[in-house]
Amino acid sequence: MKHVIHQLNKAFDHRVRLGVMAVLMANDEVSFNELKETLDLTDGNLASHAAALEKAGYVQVNKQFVGKKPNTTFTATKEGRQAFQEHLDTLEKLLKGAE
């Protein structure tokens, strides 16, 4: 059996992606601006990390216009929720093993 640390999901290695998923796990849908403010990120930083999570199939990005203003929202996919929960479970195993 491989060591538990190798079971961590590399998609969540970066603190921004970890933060994005944590916020999305607690909310059904979050707007770009809400997520940016909550995590204290720049537009570009959030966009690039959200794109990485979207490419992995963990986040769905919904773009629409409200009037003439663009409105982007994010939701965690079923696969994303499952992968993140498994990541958290693995972190918990590591913590318990360190006791």
TrEMBL record:
InterPro entries given in the database record: ArsR-like_HTH (IPR011991), WH-like_DNA-bd_sf (IPR036388), WH_DNA-bd_dom (IPR027395), WH_DNA-bd_sf (IPR036390)
Stored SUPFAM superfamilies: Winged helix' DNA-binding domain (SSF46785)
Domain Winged helix DNA-binding: 16-95
One Pfam family of this chain: HTH_34
GO process terms (BP): regulation of DNA-templated transcription
The protein's name: Transcriptional regulator
